[in-house]
Design a protein that fits this description.
Layout lengths: L10 H5 L3 H27 L8 H23 L7 H13 L6 H13 L7 H7 L2 H4 L13 H19 L14 H23 L2 H28 L13 E2 L4 H7 L7 H6 L8 H8 L3 H6 L2 E2 L9 H8 L7 H6 L1
Parallel strand pairs: 1-2
Helix pairs in contact: 2-3, 2-10, 3-4, 3-5, 3-10, 4-9, 8-10
Length: 333
């Protein structure tokens, strides 16, 4: 999809990489994860009352798993490091690997999403809207929602994410990444790391801890977080133009930022306009673009998902379900 506005004259400054900032973000996520995992293991050795802390620990762990996937997303656009091997290694092994995602597979689908945002050729969009029963669960909160809506929404999130994980594959609409043998080698490293993980968990007897404090948050919490963020990016919009197909979420509350918009991933409109800008410069680019009358008049920016003065949930309640123009066409394919 073509960029509808003129690029700022200093765009190259926003596109300049500072790899140390990516590295620092990655280290911080790992430190938080290590502390939360250690706390989880400690609860198993203490009083059963400590198990009451598990939901909090799951939130923390899932939020950092989410953050790792966001960093993988930056590496998908080659925004982690200048060296190809370092970028691929970081994204494939240290970001996507721990959450069992292949960046190489994700990249091919994601590049097609950028090229054909919210169109029939967009694999993400089609996967969400093609099946009528699935389509209904990408609009929230429904005006007729009952107390049972959210448990069903959560279950739908888990099922969808598991299915999507196995359905992601090469997409002919997206250009192939020109990484030569690097992609193959880093994939082999990622797979080898899983073998080492199995050996380590078995040798040290940590399978219970792994299932309780890594797999449970990933399956039961991360899937819910990912769905909420995905809805906030492209739904409750008119879909009549570029600016009516994607939004920014510039958080007001640190709690929501930690859960749903780590590493500025909520600045999704800015990212779709200039996918070559790393996550740590998206907010600054947004402020610069606000000097452009076209961007300022058309850009949709919410200040939260559930919290804030103008959250996405308010758009959902007031606008009702999104109605992409080609929805019936997709349903019929």
């Amino acid at each position: 999809m073509n960029n509808p506005i003129k690029a700022p004259e200093n765009l190259h400054e926003f596109q300049a990489l500072q790899p140390w900032r990516f590295t620092l973000a990655l280290i911080r996520d790992y430190v938080v994860l290590a502390a939360a995992l250690a706390a989880g293991a400690w609860t198993l050795a203490g009083s059963p009352w400590l198990w009451l802390s598990w939901p909090v620990l799951w939130l923390v762990i899932a939020s950092r798993q989410h953050a790792l996937l966001v960093l993988m997303h930056d590496a998908t656009h080659s925004l982690a490091y200048r060296q190809t091997w370092a970028n691929e290694l970081a994204g494939e092994v240290f970001c996507g690997g721990p959450v069992f995602y292949s960046m190489q597979s994700y990249r091919r689908n994601h590049l097609a999403h950028h090229k054909y945002m919210n169109e029939v050729e967009d694999p993400d969009w089609v996967r969400k809207l093609k099946a009528p029963d699935e389509r209904l669960w990408w609009d929230f909160p429904r005006k007729d929602s009952s107390i049972l809506y959210w448990p069903r929404f959560w279950l739908r999130s888990v099922v969808y994410q598991v299915k999507a994980y196995f359905e992601i594959k090469d997409n002919g609409a997206a250009p192939k990444a020109k990484t030569g043998g690097v992609a193959k080698r880093v994939t082999q490293v990622r797979l080898a790391s899983y073998v080492l993980l199995v050996v380590a968990l078995t040798y040290f007897g940590l399978w219970v801890e792994f299932l309780l404090f890594w797999m449970a948050p990933a399956l039961l919490v991360l899937t819910f977080m990912a769905r909420i963020r995905s809805i906030a990016e492209h739904f409750a919009l008119e879909h009549t133009s570029f600016f009516e197909g994607v939004r920014n979420v510039k958080y007001r509350h640190a709690f929501e930022h930690a859960l749903w918009t780590p590493h500025n991933v909520g600045m999704h409109l800015v990212h779709h306009l200039y996918a070559g800008v790393p996550f740590y410069r998206l907010n600054a680019l947004h402020e610069t673009l606000m000097n452009d009358p076209d961007y300022k008049a058309q850009a949709r920016t919410n200040d939260g998902i559930f919290l804030g003065r103008n959250p996405v949930a308010k758009d959902m309640a007031e606008r009702g379900p999104s109605t992409p123009l080609w929805r019936d066409e997709v349903a019929a394919t």
